[in-house]
Amino acid sequence: MQTIEDANVAIGDEKSCGTKRTLVLGLGNILLKDEGVGVHVAQKLQQMALPYNVEVIDGGTASLDILLTKRSIEKLVVIDALRAGKEAGTIYKARLKLDEFDKLEQIFSNETRISLHQMSIIDALTAVRRTGYAPKEVVIIGVEPEVVEWGLELTDKVKQKVSEIIDTVLKEIEDAVHRK
Questions:
Q1: How far apart are CA 162 and CA 18, in angstroms?
Q2: C-alpha to C-alpha distances, 159 to 132, 147, 151, nearest whole angstrom
Q3: Alpha-carbon distance 123 to 159, whole Å?
Q4: What's the CATH number of domain 2-178, 3.40.50.1450, 3.20.20.140, 3.40.50.620, 1.25.40.10?
Q5: List of E strands, the chain
Q6: Using DSSP, how many helices (H) and how many strands (E) does the chain show?
C-alpha cells in the first residue's frame, strides 16, 4: 500500500457528547464504475459484525450532508476513488489532523480530483470543524481507478483490491478501539 502522507493530521476539537465513535464513510458514484469503489466497500462492511461504536455509511456523493448531521465522531475513515497517476488498484492512505488540515486540500487538489464530491468533503470538514464537532482524526483511503465511465461494476483490477481495502479499514477501526 502506498501512503500519500501518513502525516498525523487531526481535524477538530473534542467537544462531543456520549460515546466516541468511528464513522466509516464510503464515497463515490456507483454509476461510474471504479468511481464507486468507496460505496461498494461500505456496502460490504455494512454486512460485517463491527464494534458497537462503529458506523458505516454508504455516502454516495453526499458527504457534506452526512458529516453535518453526525456528532461525537472521534475518527472518520473515508474510502474513495482517488486519481493520483499510479497503477489502477493502487491503495493510498493519508492520516490527517487539525494542525495540518491543508494537507487534505493538497490530496484532493484539481490534479487528483475525479468527481465533485471530493471537493465537498473538504467543505464538509471545514464546516464541521467550525461547529466544534469535527473528528480528531481523519483517515483517507483512496483507490486508483482504472475506468471512470458509465457502468455499475468495478473493473477487475479494482475489484481484486476490495478485500485489501476492507482489511485496511478494519485495521483503522481496530486502532481506534484499542486506543480508548
A1: 33
A2: 37, 12, 14
A3: 29
A4: 3.40.50.1450
A5: 2-9, 21-27, 54-60, 73-81, 91-96, 137-143
A6: 6, 6
What is the C-alpha end-to-end distance of the chain, expressed in Å?
Answer: 26
Q: Tens-of-pLDDT digits for all 180 residues of the chain?
A: 544 443 333 333 333 344 679 999 999 999 999 999 999 999 999 999 999 999 999 998 876 678 778 878 899 999 999 988 899 999 999 888 765 666 666 655 555 555 545 556 777 777 787 788 888 888 999 999 999 999 999 999 999 999 999 999 999 999 866 565
Contact 34, 154 (CB under 8 A): yes
Q: How many residues are present in the chain?
A: 180
- CA 141, distance to chain mean position in Å, is 5
DSSP 8-state symbol, 95? E
Cβ 124 vs Cβ 134: under 8 Å: no
Domain ranges (residues) in the chain: 2-178
